[in-house]
């Protein structure tokens, strides 16, 4: 495949990735607005709603990161790597918040609903943490790829390698 085709494909794939990330974020905001961050019941419910959209968001992020690693510059790889690591940290913090809210609210749940409540809470926690691990792993891979690309470029410069 020639460079012009790769450049055209890169732009389209970044657009598709953006759609997979932005659209669910808009849906999450629309479903949980207005924000009531101070209310544990709201936080618990909002994280449950948000967790249902994570698969689309992680797909879009993974697509963008894959395009960056295969066709991007070191700057692009580092940028997406940093975004992935920040998102992973945010999701881990959300998971901790969810657990704290889950334990705090458990006493308010009717006895007949405790099993469903705990199942939903642990399922949401698993989604948050597994997505955080995936985004964090991809973020680290991007940073390492950028570093390897820098070392390769430096080595080529030092030995006087010419591009064909």
Description:
With 164 residues, this protein is mainly alpha-helical. 84% of the residues lie in helices and 0% in strands. It has five helices and no strands. It has helices at residues 3-32, 40-51, 54-71, 74-105, 114-159. The protein is elongated, with a radius of gyration of 20 Å. The chain starts with a helix and ends in a 5-residue tail after the last helix. The model has no long low-confidence stretch (mean pLDDT 89).
What labels would you give this structure?
single chain; 164 residues; mainly alpha; 5 helices; elongated
In short:
Helix content is 84%, strand content 0%. The chain is mainly α and 164 residues long.
**What best-fitting shape do the alpha-carbon axes yield?**
elongated
Portion in beta strands = under 5%
Biggest sheet architecture = none
How many β-strands, per DSSP?
A: 0
The structural class is: mainly alpha
**In percent, how helical is the residue content?**
over 70%
What is the rounded Rg? 20 Å
| N-end to C-end Cα span | 16 Å
Task: Give the count of helical stretches.
Answer: 5
Task: State mean pLDDT (0 to 100 scale).
Answer: 89
What is the secondary structure topology, with strand pairs?
Blueprint: H1 3-32, H2 40-51, H3 54-71, H4 74-105, H5 114-159
């Amino acid at each position: 495949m020639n460079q012009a085709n790769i450049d055209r494909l890169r732009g389209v794939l970044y657009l598709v990735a953006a759609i997979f990330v932005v659209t669910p974020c808009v849906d999450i905001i629309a479903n949980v607005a207005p924000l009531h961050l101070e209310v544990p019941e709201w936080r618990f419910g909002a994280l449950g709603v948000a967790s249902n959209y994570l698969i689309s968001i992680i797909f879009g992020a993974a697509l963008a990161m894959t395009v960056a690693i295969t066709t991007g510059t070191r700057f692009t790889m580092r940028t997406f790597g940093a975004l992935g690591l920040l998102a992973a940290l945010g999701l881990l913090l959300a998971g901790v918040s969810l657990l704290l809210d889950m334990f705090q609210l458990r006493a308010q749940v009717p006895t007949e609903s405790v099993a469903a409540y705990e199942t939903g809470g642990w399922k949401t926690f698993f989604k948050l943490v597994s997505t955080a691990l995936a985004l964090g792993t991809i973020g680290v891979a991007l940073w390492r790829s950028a570093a390897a690309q820098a070392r390769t470029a430096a080595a080529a410069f030092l030995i006087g390698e010419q591009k064909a």
